[in-house]
């Protein structure tokens, strides 16, 4: 999987199409990820120590990695990810402008 935690991505399909957010968690074995503010669903919870009143909470659901595209930090557009190997170091690059995507992580 070429996407990593803290990458800025844009959603391509589904009810949240066009929204962008930061990847919070990656599940490479399932090819899914959690994007902050995307795929929100309501969940009914019983009262517990963590949530003493119970009620309805919003949670982020997993999104398939094929439904998102990384946003290049230099050109600011959604792009495909390319790989460049130099001096035995693998680096992710933007297919549009050719710049490195590694400056995108926080």
> How does the major sheet shape up?
6 strands, antiparallel
Question: What number is the mean pLDDT?
Answer: 90
Task: Indicate the percent of residues in helices.
Answer: under 10%
Question: Regions with pLDDT < 50 over 5+ consecutive residues?
Answer: none
- Please indicate the count of domains: 1
In DSSP terms (H or I, runs of 4 or more residues), the helix count works out at 0
Q: Brief overview, please?
A:
With 106 residues, this protein is mainly beta. It has strands spanning 8-11, 20-27, 32-35, 40-45, 55-60, 63-64, 68-71, 78-79, 81-86, 89-94.
Which features characterize this protein?
106 residues, mainly beta, SH3 type barrels, 6-stranded antiparallel beta sheet, two-stranded antiparallel ribbon, 10 strands
Characterise this structure.
This protein is mainly beta and 106 residues long. 0% of the residues lie in helices and 45% in strands. The protein contains no helices and ten strands. The protein has strands spanning 8-11, 20-27, 32-35, 40-45, 55-60, 63-64, 68-71, 78-79, 81-86, 89-94. It has a six-stranded antiparallel beta sheet with strand order 6-3-2-1-7-8, with no helix packed on it. Strands 4-5 form a two-stranded antiparallel ribbon. A two-stranded antiparallel sheet has the order 9-10. A hairpin with a 4-residue loop joins β2 and β3 (32-35). The mean pLDDT is 90.
């Amino acid at each position: 999987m070429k996407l990593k935690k803290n990458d800025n991505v844009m959603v391509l399909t589904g009810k949240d199409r066009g929204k962008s957010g930061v990847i919070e968690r990656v599940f490479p074995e399932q090819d899914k990820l959690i994007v902050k503010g995307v795929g929100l669903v309501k969940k009914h919870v019983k009262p517990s120590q963590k949530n003493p009143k119970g009620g309805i909470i919003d949670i982020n659901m997993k999104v398939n990695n094929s439904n998102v595209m990384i946003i290049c930090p230099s050109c600011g557009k959604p792009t495909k990810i390319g790989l460049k190997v130099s001096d035995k170091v693998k680096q992710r690059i933007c297919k549009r402008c050719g710049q490195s995507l590694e400056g995108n992580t926080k």
